[in-house]
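Title: Request for sanity check on AbrB family transcriptional regulator prediction

Description:
We are preparing a figure and want to confirm that the structure record we downloaded matches what your pipeline produces today. Could someone re-run it with the sequence below and paste the raw structure tokens into this thread? We only need the token string, no images.
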Amino acid sequence: MTEEYKAKVFKSGNSVALRLPKALGIAEGDDIVIAPHADGSFTFWKEDDGLKVLMGLYGSFSPGFMSEGRGDIEQEERDWSPRKPKGKAA
């Protein structure tokens, strides 16, 4: 999609809403995923297109991405023993 669209945010009940142009191909009832970014921008896509979006990211990372690994991630040991249901005496 090469066109740029502008839209206004408006209040709808206790929420805000964004009216999107029909030309974007989003239909009433479509489930949308919205991903906020650190710079305050957002990316959105149809939930059904998630795999296509993920595959589109392939190759978009810089060559040095994670070249030093993820770093140390300390995690506590977890208790995996079965727990008794709440409200029932033992």
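Thanks, this matches our download. The first strand starts at residue 9 and ends at 12.
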